[in-house]
Amino acid sequence: MSIDMYLSESRTQADSVATRCDSRVKGYESLQKAISDFYFNSQGLSGKTYDSAKEYFMSVLYPLAQGGVLLSEATKEAIKRFPEEYTARVDTCDWKESELIESLTQIDQQIRNLYDIRLNIEYYPMPDLIKTILLYANEEQIQLYQDMNRAFSEKLDRLREFNASSPDIFSEIDALESSIKQGLAQVKSSWNESSGTFMMPQDLSWAKSISNVKNAKIIAIYREQYGFDDETIELLLKTQKGIPPQK
């Protein structure tokens, strides 16, 4: 299958996806707020059902909503980055692998034809001046097509290298999707109808993975935008989690 890049379409898609992702982020953030309000502002509600619901909502549903936020943001960023990486590493216009290969084939044939013509010029008797002029023109044409060959070969190599490395642009999306799928699978079997309570999953490693992604983004902001050192960042993260600083 040919590797094809339609730059204008990719940019248009990035704008469309960004709008949808922004809308989804707002929806997930509203869900997080509703969960937080239920957890912190429902002291008057008691009983095993409400108690289990509070723990379950904060430990399972809240991380899932956080994962939705992070996935939407990562998707928006990756779709935007994709054409930017292409223009930086390949070109500022569309290219198709199949067309580049076809062009290279045609150029190679032209070069072979020109070398055949060169042999004919050298073989057939003619005045030296005419022969010199024809050989010079022939050499210039060969050089031109060889330059074209190098240029198209470089484009083809860059296009293939970009295609091979482009999955890295979407690696964070893949990891978040995997974590969210694990969480959603647990949600399906979380309600115990006989006891009227939510059952906490034993394995919440997926929630930890989502939390790590969130923390990594916070750390990057603290470091890049505010210039905080690692010790200050660690203190801020512990404060956010309610962990007292070590004296």
Coarse structural class: mainly alpha
**Biggest sheet layout:** 2 strands, antiparallel
Shape: elongated
**Mean pLDDT, all residues:** 89
Query: What integer value in Å does the Rg equal?
Result: 31 Å
Number of helices: 7
Spatial separation of the terminal alpha carbons: 61 Å
Helix content: over 70%
- Domain module count: 2
Strand content: under 5%
How would you spell out the order of helices and strands?
EHHEHHHEEHH
Provide the spatial order of strands within the biggest beta sheet: 1-2
Low-confidence stretches: 243-247
Care to count the β-strands?
A: 4
Brief synopsis:
By secondary structure, this protein is mainly alpha-helical.
Describe the structure.
The chain is 78% helix and 3% strand. The chain is mainly alpha-helical. It has a two-stranded antiparallel ribbon. The chain is elongated, with a radius of gyration of 31 Å.
For the structure shown, list the relevant keywords.
about 250 residues; 2 domains; two-stranded antiparallel sheet; 7 helices
List the topology elements.
Blueprint: E1 4-5, H1 7-40, H2 48-89, E2 95-96, H3 97-123, H4 128-165, H5 171-187, E3 191-192, E4 197-198, H6 205-226, H7 230-241
Antiparallel strand pairs: 1-2, 3-4
Helix pairs in contact: 1-2, 2-5, 2-6, 3-4, 5-6
